[in-house]
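tokens incoming
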């Protein structure tokens, strides 16, 4: 959000924020065992998740990104309708 684009790749995000040192191992464990145990302290992780949510909320507040996705579907639909009706200008 800070750069004006959505970055959903966790390893890339870890390079951009000050995250707990164990987080790369946690991401790797999740990738390796999608629904299994990562072997970390659940209370510690819960506290860190809460702290990182604050970081995310602050970034969202400062972001220039729109609140909702601005898609082209509506404009494309209107264009197709205009073309089909013979008024493709504008």
């Amino acid at each position: 959000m800070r750069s004006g684009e959505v970055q959903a790749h966790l390893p890339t995000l870890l390079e951009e924020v000050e995250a707990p040192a164990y987080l790369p191992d946690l991401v790797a464990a999740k990738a390796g065992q999608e629904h299994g145990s990562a072997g970390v302290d659940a209370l510690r992780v819960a506290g860190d998740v809460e702290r990182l949510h604050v970081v995310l909320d602050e970034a969202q507040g400062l972001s220039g990104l729109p609140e909702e996705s601005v898609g082209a579907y509506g404009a494309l639909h209107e264009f197709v309708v205009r073309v089909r009706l013979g008024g493709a200008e504008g």
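note: Residues 70 and 76 are 13 Å apart (CA to CA).
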